[in-house]
Amino acid sequence: QVHFMESGGASVEPGASLTLSCTVTGRSVRGVALGWYRQAEGQARETIAAEGNLWGVSYAASVEGRFSIVRDNAANTVFLKMNNLTEKDTARYFCNMGSWGDGPVYASWGQGTYVTVSS
Questions:
Q1: Is the separation of the CB atoms in 55 and 101 below 8 Å?
Q2: pLDDT in tens, 57-69
Q3: Whether 60 contacts 66, CB under 8 Å
Q4: Which of 1, 17, 66, 89 has the fewest CB atoms within 10 Å, i.e. is most exposed?
Q5: Sheet hosting strand 67-72, strand order edge to edge
Q6: What is the distance in angstroms between the CA of the first residue and the CA of the last residue of the chain?
Q7: CA dihedral 108, 95, 42, 86 (to 10 degrees)
Q8: Which residues of 72-103 are buried (b: 16+ CB within 10 A; e: fewer)?
């Protein structure tokens, strides 16, 4: 069974940087597309970044230029490096397997990690 364990969320001020981590267990991430998603209070979950050798890298317009998705296959981990955070980035962040076009592969999500951006 595949599990996703997100971490690294925190409460920060606007303009700050954070790096989120997601370690995957139960399946190797080698050769698999990975993505980051977020869900703000009262809103639907949205795709914000996805990458894979066959699919390239894609970002939501709201985060492009500020966020970077990076993987470490040896650690079976994917990272989301976030710069210049704004209050609109406040949300719970999740990871899953899947390309930008196909969306998340697994219906079972991790608990996510919460990011609060506030002055």
A1: yes
A2: 999 999 999 999 9
A3: no
A4: 1
A5: 3-7, 18-25, 77-82, 67-72
A6: 40
A7: 170
A8: eeeebbbbbebeebeeebbbbbbbbbbbbeee
How deeply is 29 buried, as exposed, middle or buried, from its count of CB atoms within 10 A (0-12, 13-18, 19+)?
buried
pLDDT tens digits, one per residue of 3-53: 999 999 999 999 999 999 999 999 999 999 999 999 999 999 999 999 987
Q: Decide: residue 116, CB within 10 A, 0-12 exposed, 13-18 middle, 19+ buried.
A: middle
